Amino acid sequence: MRQNPDEGHADGAPAASGVPFRDRRAAGTAGEDAAGRPDRAGHGDRNRDLAALRQTIARIAGEPIARLEDPAEPHEAAGRPEGNGRRALQPLRPLGAPAADRALGGGIAAGGLTEIHSDETRGAGTLAGFALALALRLGAGTARPLLWLAPSHALREAGLPYGPGLAGFGFDPAALLLVRTRRLEEAVWAGEEAASCRALSVVVLEVRGNPGRLALEGTRRLHVRAREAGVALLLLRQNAAPEPTAAPLRLRVAPGSASPVADLAEAPRLLGAPLFQIALEKSRSGPPQRFTLEWNPHERRFDEPRPGARQPLSRPQPALPLDGQGAAGRSGTLVALARREPGPLARAG
Fold first, then answer.
1. Which residue intervals of 92-215 are DSSP H helices?
2. Who is most buried in 138, 165, 240, 327, counting CB within 10 A?
3. What pTM does this model have?
4. Domain parsing of the chain, residue ranges
5. Could you tell me which of 279, 300, 282, 283 has the C-alpha nearest to residue 291?
6. Per CATH, which fold does 92-260+271-303 belong to?
């Protein structure tokens, strides 16, 4: 589903798709300059102080910051807003696997911020595949497309979404809008603007690591805008460490060993449906959990893995010695042999 960003698309289109925002560097959000910096020095210091204070309160209370800022009320869970100025929770979209939906409290929110992490940059393919599957469950299509935002350095190693791979995964390439920016600040600004666009079903913002612009204050702006517009915003972090943010839900995804194709038992080496190992690290619905999901590209839903052994196609092998000789095989049963004394001719020689 990915290809080298320095190469063109398979259909001959340039690597960087059309950008729906005219001049990303000349414009900024209210109260910020073109690079996204606060236009007053004291304003930036105040925001950092507030962010540090929220983190301190969250540690003392032992609660996630998102829960302290916007605690769920019984009338919100039922979807019935009352006259106290609070918003009802966003509707949830089930994944299709009952165990995962129970762990998530019903599914993925159709509006607001969700964080998805990978342990390493080389796991960006798994990260992208899981995000595309979630986008399909959230209703991404040609009528309400998926907008994918990323700075160039995040795509340099991970690669760009690949059209034929998307189609085989069950995602229509025509439903994807790709924006590749030169700097992280431009991608974050575009994400804030896109989060308010109701013409989009899902916005994906892909970054590397834990940049300071996407700490508590930056993610809070993203979450509030996406929640008010009813747009799902997926923040993909390659090689990221957990940190306090405003995202109500944080998942960590890793690849699993694909199951054999059920209808082709005579070809056990044939690669089956993708498997995702999910760690639920932060959620309003309950404690951290782990579960495994298998993506069904035909039905466009997640299933629970089928029982049976799943052997990975690639396995670690012992390294060859420098002289090129193969490694010695595993020793078998040891047998003691009687020692023979040398004969007369051998002693004479």
1. 98-103, 124-137, 152-158, 163-169, 184-194
2. 240
3. 0.66
4. 92-260+271-303
5. 279
6. Rossmann fold (3.40.50)
